[in-house]
Amino acid sequence: MPLGWFSVGRVHELTDDVTTVNAFGSQVVVWKDADGDFHAMDPYCPHLGAHLGVGGTVEGNCIRCPFHYWEFDTAGKNTVIPYAEKPNRKAQIYTYPSRVVNGHLVVWYHPHRSVAPTYEIPQMLAEDAVLGGGFDRLVSSQWQEIAENSVDMPHFKYVHGTGTINPIGKLTMDGPFRTVESQQAFNTSRGDFTGDLVSNSLGSGMGHIEFKLFGTVTLISAITPIDNENVHVRFTFYHDGSEIAEKIATPFVAEVERQFDQDIPIWESKTYLASPALAPSEKPVTQLRKWAAQFYA
Fold this sequence. Notes:
The protein is of the alpha+beta class. It has helices at about 145, 155-160, 245-270, 285-290; strands at about 5-10, 20-25, 25-30, 40, 55-60, 60-65, 70, 80, 100, 105-110, 130-140, 170-175, 175-190, 190-200, 205-215, 215-225, 230-240. It folds into two domains: about 5-110, Rieske Iron-sulfur Protein (3-layer Sandwich), CATH 2.102.10; about 130-295, Naphthalene 1,2-dioxygenase Alpha Subunit, Chain A, domain 1 (Alpha-Beta Complex), CATH 3.90.380.
C-alpha cells in the first residue's frame, strides 16, 4: 500500500452528514464542521468502540458519538462527556491531515502515523473550470499498475484500437511529481483524432491530465487504496468553458471511460514482474518504477 495524499471524496459530492469511506485497509469517517471545514478521522470512539459513521452527528465543531454522546473536536480530542464534569484527556481519535485541493478532500496516509506529510499537492485545477462529467471504478489492482499506463504507449493500439503508436515525448520528474508530455489518439465517430496530452502525477494518489484538441479538457484522477488488493478510482472531467470544448467533453469522457474499462480485466488478472523483458522504446516503464519506489515505506 503506498503512502501519500489520497482522495476520500469529491468535495461537491460530500454532504453535511457523517460519511464513511473505505480506505487504507480500514475506514475513514469524514464530516464537516459548523465553519464548513471538512475533517477525516478514525471511525471508532475510544470510549467503547462505537462507529462514529453509524449514527454519529455533528454538533457545532465537534463530532458526537451515537452511543453515549461523547463529543470530539476537530483534532480528535474529547471535549464533552454529558454525564461527567470534565472530558477524558486520554480519549483521542486519530485525525488525518487533510486538504481540499483540485476538487477533492485528500488525506495524508502513512503506515507510521507519526510521519508528517512530506509534500503538498499543488492546486492545478482552474477556478473557472466547468465540470464535464466523471466516473468511479473499484479495481482489484494497485495504483502503480494503473499509473504505468501513462508510459505504456503500445497498449493504446493493441488494447484500445487506436491507429498509431505515438512516442511518449518528454518525461520529467521532480521529487514526488512527474510530468509526461505526449500525443495520444482517441477514437471518435469521425475517426481517430490526435491531441496533445500533458499528464501530471501529483504524488501517488492524484493526477492532473490536460488534453488539448481544439478546446481543452482536464482530467483530475484520484486513486485511493482501499486495501492491499483494491483501489477506488475517481475520474473527474472539466473543460475550459468554450463552445468547442463543451462539445468534445462528453465524447471525450465516454472514450476515456471505454479505454479504462478495457484495461480493468488486464489489471485484475496480470502479475507484477519485478524485472520485465522490455522493448528498447519502453525505458520509461523502468523510470516510472524508480520514481514510484519513494511512495513505499
